[in-house]
Automatic annotation (TrEMBL):
InterPro entries given in the database record: ShKT_dom (IPR003582), VWF_dom (IPR001007)
Transmembrane segment boundaries: none
Domain VWFC, first and last residues per copy: 303-368
Domain ShKT per the UniProt entry, residue ranges: 58-93
Signal peptide: none
Origin superkingdom: Eukaryota
Name of the protein this chain belongs to: Kielin/chordin-like protein
Amino acid sequence: RNCPAFCNMCHHSTVTTPPPQCNDKSLCTSLAFKPWAQQNCPNFDQLCQGPTTTSVPCVDKDSPSLCQSAVTNGFCSQFASVRDRCAKSCGVCTVATTPSTSTAPPSGWQLLFKGVENMGGDLFQLWAGGQTINPLDPTAANLFPQKPYKPDLSNHWNSLCLDKIKVSIYKHGVEKAYIVFDARNSDKLNWFSSDRIIDSSWGNIASIPKQFIGMQTDPSTGLQFSVTQTSQQCSTTGWIMVTSPQSNCFYEKGLQKPSFFYSMTNTAVNWGSAQKGMGDVFAIQGHSTCSNGSTTTPVPPPTGCTYKGTLHQEGEMWTDGCEKNCTCPKDQSGIAQCVPRCPVYQGLPSQCHVVKQPGQCCGQVYCNFTGMITCNYKGKDYVVGDKWDDGCDLSCECLANGAYSCKQKCVNHWNIPKSICSLAEPEPGCCCQVPKCPSYVVIQYPQGYGPEVCTPTR
């Protein structure tokens, strides 16, 4: 009756009554099947974009000890009478909330961080670090999963006047689960604790015993931003969690990281069960009391690099006294890149000396040679203008004054977000490691360096 097209039954009716309309009906939208589908096929039910409803009162009719015993012994799944008398503990009813669809943070809340499913990397390290992600991209500052987002706001925690912090999991722009924390007198890394819980989509869970709660990686499970009732590797029960590069359980098989899980009932659920839900966005939002209750924070998105208290625009170059030459890269990282301002001369012949003139930062090499000027490096002579490599360690040049100048051949310190970037081993014929990052990270070489010219191999 419900799937005549799929069952190939559209043209085989032997009755004289008019045949049924030949289209398939959705079990999700059929009132007759919806309660059964919600209980037995919650993953399938997630595809139906409607609020979950139930006629089961969300209370336990029996005593808490009897209902807890029923849960422990697995009676909830075996007996309908147990599910009726212990509906709340068995998780067969849901909290009566109506989720709202939005493209931006709710009124009064400021989006501080947004992770999206399958983006890769370590979500806690991305939150804890000082780097930004798409801070000036207006298409990222919403609650849909197209792009991750992290402005510079959380790096100025004490200026945000936060009284509440909310972590949420969204699916298609709909908030599926949340926990609100008290943010007063907190810092960026210590507000995710049980004693700060104010509210949640599961009611007040602050007083419920928990084996682990924290944004950092749980050493027992590898999970992050997790609130768990029992923490036993792949048999963990909880309310909310994020997978990480360190987690590896059967329920993660076939999923890209990070993934965002939440309990679809009003109690903690086993992450391997069918009572968990999955979202596509993990959001951290802050509620500010600045400017007489204004919903915006006083800290604007970054437009450059702050170096020793001075803001420099992207692309700007400056000197730090006689010590360094600095550049503000155009990668929206807000991190200045600096190199020594003056060259370092090594192995000067006895006829040569570095002389610094009054008012100059860098000294000049003066030599007293007769005949053709050459440079001697490790017993070998080079003429002015010659350039050579000392293995994969140094790149050198013979200067006009008979001295040579060498610098490190490869960049040793990269200002890249280590949680999402790595250094790839050199290609054949090359010496230097090269950063490998997602496409939204812009890689900029320090001043005086560029892509390596490699020696062809046979």
